[in-house]
Amino acid sequence: MQEILTVIANHYGFVPQLTQLEEECEELALACHKLKRNLQGNKKPDTSNLIEEIADVEIMTAQIKILLNCKSRVEEVKENKLGRQLGRMGDEI
Predict the structure, then answer these.
(1) What are the pLDDT tens digits along the chain (93 aa)?
(2) pTM
């Protein structure tokens, strides 16, 4: 999958893929809002749209990480953020 992501990312380039990431993030936010509204209305939740949008955002973020060559740095930042959150919760791994 990494090879496919690299081919696609390099084909379109940084600015177009950044624009696409923005659009996909907006669609994910909307899917979250719709699902939350359905849950609050006691409707049976349909998570299929949310799952689709999560996949789209993950695909685009993977491409941006490739284009910025920042996968390792993103992982470091994620680990730090998760550690801080656990600290706020009073838990340790």
Answers:
(1) 999 999 999 999 999 999 999 999 999 999 999 999 999 988 788 999 999 999 999 999 999 999 999 999 999 999 999 999 999 998 666
(2) 0.89
